[in-house]
Amino acid sequence: MSTASANRTRFAGVLAATLVLTTGIAGAGTDAAAPGSRPAPSAAPAPAPARVTSAWLPHWGGEAAYQDALAHAAQLHTVSPFWYQATSETTIAPHPGAGDQRIVEGFHSRGIKVVPTVTETLDARAMADLLNDPTRRTAHVDTLVRLAESPGYDGVDLDYERMAETDDEDLRGQVRLGYNTLASELCRRLHTIGKQCVVTVLPYTRDSGHAYDYAHLGGVVDRLRIMGYNLHHAEGAPGPLSSLAWYDEFLRHATNAVPVDRIEVALPAYGWDWTVGSTDRAKHLTTLEAEALRLDKKATYRLDPESGTPHFTYVDQGHTHEVWYQDAKGVAAHLAIMRTHGVRGSGLWALGFEDPALWGVLAEGWER
User: Fold this and answer.
1) Which of 2, 223, 323, 332 is the least crowded, having the fewest Cβ atoms under 10 Å away?
2) Can you give the pLDDT at residue 46?
3) Alpha helices for the chain (secondary structure H)
4) Cα gap 119→137, rounded to integer Å
5) How many CA atoms lie within 13 A of 55 on its CB side?
């Protein structure tokens, strides 16, 4: 059987299960009870869903994103506020709202760990120089540890992506080597003070993720978060943000290199709106915005069996637009691939973006 045929077969079964999860309809309605029959005993309360999900809190998401997390606290073990960016070895600049103690305390009150995310503004060359200079690297570790010691923080999530944006194989190797050393030193220091060490990485496939040494990182971190999105991105051609075959590819590499209980796959709750034939950057849409746009344009909802993602087209001012995004039905298909690799850890980019039905799919998906 071809890969495409296998994916279609696997997806068909998952889609049928998803229909039950999102609509509650498994088949024809049940018959009414016969007269005089004894009512069925009350069902036992459903157990709380397992806390197997983490999520990012965008600093621009406002109160809605915070309330979204609280509403689904029973499923979240960690929230990573997207609050900081490293601009040098000793400088970490805060985004608006960084360190908001109302948010930190609110999450703690619901049993959620707070592990803020730090991104970097330095390019591959600058990061290679920093990471491979022992003095500068130690200074950077010191700076990150001080951040982790801020009130209420339970660790740090390093989301260093810009350093991976190079086609120079030698430079990429320098970044990879230096990042291994940084991660080892940082995680050791964080563990000494009882803090979590989380690293977010690009998916490792034939075409991406080669700036990250999964085996080394997986040996030192508490969790390795894999960004399961942007297979097609804003500056490229239209297409799905993720696909079943792509998940299978990067999970094969990840599970061969990293203990499976340390892996999280971050699921997308957004999409891109491309203008067909244009070289302009695609417009970002949350899943909520994408679905609202589809309804407004009266566009037909389509669920692509090859990728397991929804999409639609519409015409505006004479220009054809192609929109690909992710919703609960698509996530169900991707969870099935994750299960085949034994990966239970999931993440979400980002709170306030998602299809509300996603939470039910996540809860049901991990009970299988």
Assistant:
1) 2
2) 58
3) 3-23, 62-71, 101-109, 124-131, 134-148, 169-192, 214-220, 244-257, 287-297, 328-340, 358-365
4) 16
5) 31
Residue-range domain boundaries for the chain: 49-268+327-365
Which single residue is written with the structure tokens 């796959």? 265
What does each C-alpha distance from 94 to 61, 81, 204 come to in angstroms? 15, 11, 29
List the beta bridge partners of residue 359. Answer: none
**Token duo for residue 250:** 């990067």
Model pLDDT, residue 193 = 98
Share of the chain above pLDDT 90, in %: 85
CATH superfamily of 49-268+327-365: Glycosidases (3.20.20.80)
Q: How far are the Cα atoms of 22, 85, 289 from residue 308, in angstroms, in the given order?
A: 16, 33, 19
Contact 216, 181 (CB under 8 A): no
CB atoms inside a 10 Å sphere around CB 301 = 12
Task: Say which residue the tokens 């015409």 belong to.
Answer: 315
Q: Look at the block and give the residue holding tokens 């239970």.
A: 344
Identify the CA nearest to 192 among candidates 227, 150, 149.
Answer: 149
pTM confidence score: 0.88
Which pairs count as long-range contacts for 253-256, CB under 8 Å and 24+ apart, including other chains? Answer: 253/204, 253/205, 253/214, 254/204, 254/214, 254/224, 254/226, 254/341, 254/343, 255/341, 255/342, 255/343
